[in-house]
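Researcher: I've got a protein sequence and the SMILES for 1,3-dihydroxyacetonephosphate. Could you write out the 3D structure of the bound complex as structure tokens? I'd like something to compare against our soaking experiments later this week.
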Amino acid sequence: MNIALIAHDNKKKQLINFSIAYKNILEKHCLFATGTTGKLIGEATGLNIQCFMSGPLGGDQQIGAKVANNEMDLIIFMRDPLTAQPHEPDVLALLRLSDVHAIPIATNIATAELLIKALERGDMHWREIIKQSKKHNKK
Ligand SMILES: O=C(CO)COP(=O)(O)O
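Model: Sure. Here is the predicted complex with 1,3-dihydroxyacetonephosphate in place.
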């Protein structure tokens, strides 16, 4: 599965700790992240992460493009709801695209815990089926 990891500044520590706690699950998947988040998680965990641009510079939009192309299966996005973000429109665009394409997205630690456990249990297998059928329909 392709998994995106994103955290606003006040939530980065939380996502780093989450990534350490669930490294054994995350390491079985292809990981993507916005620039600063990916760099920090990579340094803290040794996980291999493909980093996009920093969020304010377009990283959320790059992840959104992967959602639109059916190339992202799950997003863990620790949002900071108490701080104004200069790139709020980009954040909303990513949330919107995730809804358009029905991509599971956690925006807080409680949902992130549920999704990562569901992933490990195999509850995300339907994504493989959808990807296969979309590929097949393109032929
Ligand atoms: O701002 C972000 C998400 O909206 C995160 O970007 P960084 O990981 O580059 O800090």
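Model: Residues 2-138 form a domain with the Rossmann fold fold (CATH 3.40.50.1380). The chain has one domain: 2-138.
Researcher: Great, I'll pass this along to the crystallography team.
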